[in-house]
Amino acid sequence: MQLRIRLFLFLVPLWLLIFNSCSNSKPETGFYFWKTVFQLDTVEHRALKEVAARSIYTRIMDIDFDPSGVQAVPISPVTFSQPVPKEQALIPVVFINQRIFSEMDSLQIRALANKIVPFVSAKIKQAGKEKFNELQLDCDWTQTSRDKFFYLLNYLQELPDLKDVIISSTLRLHQVKNTVTSGIPPVKKVTLMCYNMGNLRQFGNQNSILNQQDLKTYLGGTLRNYPMQMDIALPLFQWFVVFRNNSYIGISKYISEQDINNTALFTRNPKSNLFILITDLPKANLKKGDVVRFEQVTHDDLLQTAKFLRGELKGKKHQIIFYHLDQATLANHGNAELQEIIRAF
Amino acid sequence: MAMPSYKKLFVLSSTTLAFFFGEIATNIACGPEMDPYDNQTTYYLPNLEDNGFSAFQYIPYQFLYTEEAPVKESIVNSEAWAKHLGSDINVKDIQQLMYYSDSATSDLVSNQKKSSWSNLPDSIKGNTFLQTLIDGKHEPERAYFIFTKKQEPITNVQHNYWDPDTRNFKEIVQYAELAEAQINKHKKNSFLFVRYAYQAARLYLFGQEYAKSIAVYEKYLQPIKGNEAILNWALSNYAGAIRKNGDGAKAAYLFSRLFTASPERRVLAYANFHYITASDTEIFQYASNDADNFNINAIIGFGTGDRTMKYLNACYKLDPANTVNAVLLGREVNKIEGDMNESFYIGYGENYNYYARNEDKSTIKQHLDSLRDFSLNLYQDKKYVQPQLGLITAAYLSWMNRENDLAKKYLAQVKENELNPRLGDQYQITVLLTQLADWQTSKQIDQPKLVKTLAWLEQKAKQDGKNSSNKKEWSYSAFEYSNYSLIARNILQNLVVKHYLSTQDTAMASLAAVKADIFYNYGIAKDSLEDNMQWSTMHFWENSLTPKTLLKIRALLSDNTQQNTLSRFLLQDIKHFNRDYLTELLGTAYLRELDFQKAATTLQALPKDHKIKEIRNSYNEDETDVIPSPFIVTINDYPKKYGKENTTKLKYAERMARLENAIKSEKNNQKKADYYFQMATGIYQTSTYGNAWSLVSYDWSSSDNHAGTTIHWQRNYVQTKSAKEWYNKARSLSSDKEFKAKCTFMLAKCEQKDFVYTEDTRWQYYDSPLKNPFYRFSLQNRYFKELNTQYKDTPFFNMASKECTYLRDYMNLTQAIK
Question: What is the ipTM of this complex?
């Protein structure tokens, strides 16, 4: 063969290689939608556009026991007040409370799978979409429910109705570290939930949503070895965790940042995220002496997280999905910030 | 809400502990869920006014007192149609066609153009409503009827969890538009005008077009005056649309109006009101007159579980004559009852009450006083329709507060002939309560008078029983539909039984307990005595009766001349009793008394084929039979070692009696010692720790061990005291070292039974035996010391120290110390 041709043939793969790795520079993005009524306002539409979101991972339903505690049924299924924008793909997510598996045998698991699929398909249509390419199952499985959940995942992949659909699963940090006890879900890809990593109910100064310490503990050195395509879910939300007599009593929906910064109501424990009520707060049904831990995710936290994960996921293709698509949550992070985070990967 | 310790005991014993020991746990009462109706220690009738508010009587643990609506909407509507169409229409026919016919029938009906009804199926041919619809003179009505049936498939949708909700809202709205177009084709405010408007608003609501629904109502329906039922239903939908449209407070206000105005939608209004999150202040803003304020106060009052005078006072001030005040008053009385009235279950013991009893007594008394003042005020004001309600309630409250003389004083002022029937009944009941209170203190009771009132109460309960046959079959509560039964049961169980026990007339108490149980069946006695007993009564009979009491009971049951007025009443309609069961029980009672002679004589009277109650071993699948063998000696109590031959109660009694006699006449010390040893073993094995517990007890629980004793025979059943005495005797009479070693070890076993668990120590988890107080107690056993110092060289000791881990641990410990 002529030298020029040989050179050309040698160089083509080289150029392709270079272009390939370049095309990995910007990950795809998406949002989780986790409310029971699908309706988007201007802020939310804007966010989708600004980050060029490809998909909206929408919670279709929870699966948990009905009030009698006997059978597993859809809880609070989503309703679509408006169709999902045509620019984004709708990826249905089904949350399963792992406790339903305790009394189920394989026949019942197959029955459940065969009920989930038509339900999800009908909901997709209500959202104005004809079909879906991916179905995500979200289940914080335990050692006892692991095999049954994995059975469900396997079985779903065998259903003819889902033959063109990718089944994915969520993954929590501890499941990356403890693959021996947690197992590796039998799916094509997973979404790593980089949030809710700390102990929410424990009294203290921690940030149970996102902290670098836990990330390193669970993922350092192990994430890179996870044998599967992985998307990353990042938190944008914040909340107010309430304690009474050092005991967890819940997450309050009736407090705002304005409230905790109001020195007539709260005294801040210096250098911490703890705020003590100095008077009763009837609108939130709280009493003097109650302590609120304000947990938030700052831009810096997210950048640090991105950098860390980039180190672990070097060279691998992944999607960034933000939790979650909601005007109040997005108020904490401007679109420019989100773009910066995406670039940090 | 903390579970009473007794129930906790049973639940835990049958699951955790029984599992842990892997032993039998028979007759554990892990019953169904608590029955909220049974739970009420009440002597106060609800529904003293028949005003359709029965769902809102006070009942903890349930959202409503009853699910039954006071009035059925389908009947109200059918009656309205009947009125509109003419008097020869049968209301039931309308109801049938409108509400109970299937879609095929309504399709068929819809397609009838002329009166070619000879082709109709028999089932509806004679339907007068149908005949009218298709007679050619009622085309508008027929058109309306067809219209309503056409939309049913998309509006009458059953809830199914797995239905992804494919409701076609567009289609529903289309129907709404059709209805709206029809409104003005009818004369203003006429029958069909109103109905089409109603449908339009309703369909817009179902189609989620709330603003349109509101607009239709406000334009066509709101201006119409009058109290036709359909206007209320339109109001109901209007409130719903307002709620869905985001104005919770206004919707709540509207629901409060609906609540008072419409019996058939009362429960719906109540549920909606209480699910809306709006503050009271916001809702009151919409109240424009006294009636509005009354409605809101009443509906909030019905939803309040705390003790409060606030809503009762407010309602009374706004409308003193309103019978809703009686319901609110009743609720407050019921709340106090929960705190002040004691319930007494004969098998469970004193003060077994589901309610938490750590309330501040003074707050309760304060509330009682406020309520009593209110009641007296109600009486004196004479503004309420039945002012004497206040007087009778004040009397009842006083009785509850143990001010019996004051109660009687109030009752003396009552003019009986002016009372409505229900209030008259409450008067009778309250009088009876004061009589019973007198009885507690003065020891004398006018028996005929007491029986007369109780019999009257029984009649009332039986009447409830007849009426209940048309209630839902599957109701698990005996008292949901019969407050007379509940009150009768409470009176007998809490007052009469308790009184007899405190005066030590256990026989009468036992019979009164059975009579109380009969009210679980509306006061209708079953033929056989035992069939009437509830578990706790049966438990009491089987555990707490002495031979003396049993003989007295048997006499009362068999011999009419032994009876008095009250006992005759208690045993009325009971035709027979199981003589053998009673005989066996008597024999068992003698065994517990250690009166083996009498036990044997009694049990000999039983027929040869007499079968004792079946005892199942439900925890060990290998052994299905419990075969008592009371004279075998075991080192370890667990696992229980049974015998091959069934030792009956009679055989046991006879052998023990023989041994007893032998001891008296025996001269040889060793033989005597041996007899004592055997008797001691018999006692030990018939304890809860042994294999022959079924000879003296009718049930066994794995938490009986080391429990506190409450009944006299538990000194042996739980503490093996007589066994200890006789092992001691045996040891002192013998000079055989091996035998003495054996006795000493058995004494050690008995000594261990002195340990008593408390509530806390029993259920605590100990991660090391050394932390377990029972274990520590066992290792300090003085007989272990004796074994170690005096009997170490015996073969028996050798065997025991290998098999008994406590002894082994003791030995190791002593070694280690050395």
Answer: 0.80
